[in-house]
Amino acid sequence: MVLVSSKYLLDRAYQEHFAIGAFNAGNSEFVKNIITVAENLQSPVIIQIYPLEYELMGSKIIKYVLEAAKVSNVPIAVHLDHGRDLNDVLRSNKDQLNSVMIDTSAEEFAKNVAATSEVVDICHRLGIAVEAELGSIGNRFANDSSNMGRIYTDPNSAKEFIEQTEVDFLAVSIGTVHGPYPSGKNEIRIDILKEINRALKIPLVLHGGSKNPDQKIKEAIENGIAKVNISTDIKLPYFHAIKDTVIEKPTDYEPWIMLKQANQIQKDILKEKILLFGSNGKASEYLNDFRHLKPYFPYEGEKVEFY
């Protein structure tokens, strides 16, 4: 199977009101589990790498992901998650990820526009799709526990941001947070999402996709969310399962023994998420006519050698 662009996956998902799961690959086992479940469900999928995951595993993990995706029978895109600056983006360009996120949402609007525009200019010339963020998703470590650092995305500002930067898809803040939620803090604002969707009419991205009510996720997908990021939901149970196995079998050490339960738990969660997002069975829609299959890079990129 050829690798496809995140842009190609999301454009169709947005039009048909389903979403693509974008799962963070914390190690090579995660990559195998994600692809196995995607193939079993015949679902397109995005494998994404966060900068700290990138630093932990090095550029070689990207080569592994790309090769694993090439021999899969479903469409797979490979994405940089939360690129912190131009250096993160250029590293991912060199390693041939075909879409990137530049996240300068903590900056004031003008600086966010400027930084994002620079990345879009470089990446579109190389043929690479770009995601950005406006507002603040928030996280569980924020000082204000009642709000957890959320700044909701303003629809009017979002429209101006899209017009000035020409990003391909936008991560919006509608009440989710990164990391596990404290009890009772799940407050996805579908009303805000509807306004953003009406204003932008481009694929939208939900960060902090873990630990949300299924019904809210379904409503979000119906109202413009075409990519749902999942990290916590596939990491916490995985590593807790390893801990439980170590406690249960303290004298065992072989990987096929120590990881068996963790891998199965993760695969069960991946299946649950893909079914929730409605992307199961959609692989054939992308693959039916290869003449319309967008290339790995969605733009007419320049031939560039990286050194």
Automatic annotation (TrEMBL):
Q: Which residues form the active site?
A: 81 (proton donor)
Free-text comment on the cofactor: Binds 2 Zn(2+) ions per subunit. One is catalytic and the other provides a structural contribution.
Pfam families with a match to the protein in the record: F_bP_aldolase
Can you tell me which residues bind Zn(2+) 2? Answer: 103, 133
Kindly list the positions annotated as binding dihydroxyacetone phosphate: 179, 208-210, 229-232
GO BP field: carbohydrate metabolic process
Question: Which NCBIfam families has this protein been placed in?
Answer: cbbA (TIGR00167)
Name the chain's protein: Fructose-bisphosphate aldolase
Naturally occurring in which organism (per UniProt): Liquorilactobacillus nagelii
